[in-house]
Specification:
This protein is an all-beta fold. The protein has no helices and 22 strands. It has a single domain, classed as UDP N-Acetylglucosamine Acyltransferase, domain 1 (3 Solenoid).
Length: about 170
C-alpha cells in the first residue's frame, strides 16, 4: 500500500517567503508551503498553531500580530491578516469549500471553490471564532468568542453569534 503526505509541517523559518525580525514561534507550530507564507515584524505564533499554506496562494500576516495557541489558518484562496491583529486561541480561518455538485457526487469529490479572507489592521478575533471563505473583517472590528463569520464585518464594529451579526459600533 502506498501512502502520501502533505509533509511533516516542520517549521523551518529560513523557508518562509518572508519573516521579519523578532517573530516568535512556540513549540508545536506547523507550517505547510512556507514559500508562500510571509510574516511581518514581531509576530507571535502560539503553541500548536497550523499555518496551512497552499501551493499557489499566499498567506500574509502583518507586523505585531498575535496568534494564540491551536489556531488553524488555511490559505488556499489567499489570506491577508493585517498589523496589530489579535487572534484568540483556537481560531479557524478557511479560504476554500466544496461546491454542491448534486446528489450523485460525494461532497468530498465536488469541485473546490476558493475565496480570499482579509482581516484588516487592529481587528480582534475572539477565542474559537471561525472565519469562512470570502470574508473581510474591517479595521478595528471585534469578533466575539465562538462566532462563525460568514459575511463581511464593517470596520470598528462588534460582531458575535452563529452566524455572526453586527451587535454595535465601537466607540
Amino acid at each position: 500500500m502506498h501512502h502520501r503526505s502533505h509533509g511533516s509541517g516542520e517549521l523551518r523559518v529560513e523557508e518562509l517567503a518572508e519573516c521579519g525580525p523578532d517573530c516568535v514561534f512556540e513549540r508545536g507550530v506547523m507550517v505547510f508551503h512556507p514559500e508562500n507564507i510571509a510574516l511581518g515584524r514581531n509576530v507571535y505564533v502560539g503553541h500548536q498553531t497550523i499555518l496551512k499554506g497552499y501551493y499557489n496562494a499566499r498567506m500574509e500576516i502583518g507586523d505585531q500580530t498575535w496568534i494564540g495557541q491551536q489556531c488553524f489558518f488555511h490559505s488556499a484562496g489567499g489570506l491577508r491578516i493585517g498589523a496589530r491583529v489579535g487572534v484568540g486561541p483556537g481560531v479557524r480561518i478557511l479560504t476554500s469549500t466544496h461546491a454542491e455538485a448534486g446528489r450523485d457526487v460525494p461532497v468530498l469529490g465536488a469541485p473546490l471553490r476558493f475565496a480570499p479572507v482579509v482581516v484588516e489592521d487592529d481587528a480582534d478575533l475572539g477565542v474559537g471564532a471561525i472565519v469562512l471563505p470570502g470574508v473581510t473583517i474591517g479595521r478595528g472590528a471585534i469578533i466575539g468568542a465562538g462566532a462563525v463569520v460568514a459575511s463581511d464585518v464593517p470596520a470598528y464594529t462588534v460582531a458575535a453569534g452563529v452566524p455572526a451579526r453586527v451587535q454595535r459600533e465601537r466607540p
